[in-house]
Amino acid sequence: MKFFSRKAASASVLALGALTGLITMSGPASASPSQCSVGFNASIASSTCLGGTGEHRIVCFYTHHIPGVGTIQGYGPWKPVGETSTTYCPPDRVTNTFVEVR
Predict the structure, then answer these.
(1) DSSP-assigned beta bridge partners for residue 79
(2) What is the residue range of the signal peptide feature (predicted)?
(3) Residue 82 lies in a domain
(4) What percent of the chain has pLDDT over 90?
(5) What are the helix and strand counts (H, E) for the chain?
(6) Structurally, how many domains does the chain consist of?
C-alpha cells in the first residue's frame, strides 16, 4: 500500500525544512542597553550601562597632538550590561564622546 508519492514526500520534507529554518532564526526579544553613562578619569573615558540587554562600548573622537594629522577615533571593547568599557581619551583634545550599543 502506497501512502505518499515521491513528489509529495519531497514537498513535505522541503516545507518542514523551511519551517524549521524560520523557527531557528527567530529568537527571544531583547532590549538595547539603557541607563548608559559616560565618565572620565584622567585620560581614560568609560561607559557603563545598567539596564536592558546586549552590549555597549565607549567611543571617543579627539584631535591628534600633531597639527594636520586630524581626528583620532578611540573605541573601547564591547562589554555586557553591568560592565565598564574604557578607552584612551585625552580630555584636552576631545571633540565628541558617546556610548555605542548593540
Answers:
(1) 56
(2) 1-31
(3) yes
(4) 69
(5) 1, 7
(6) 1
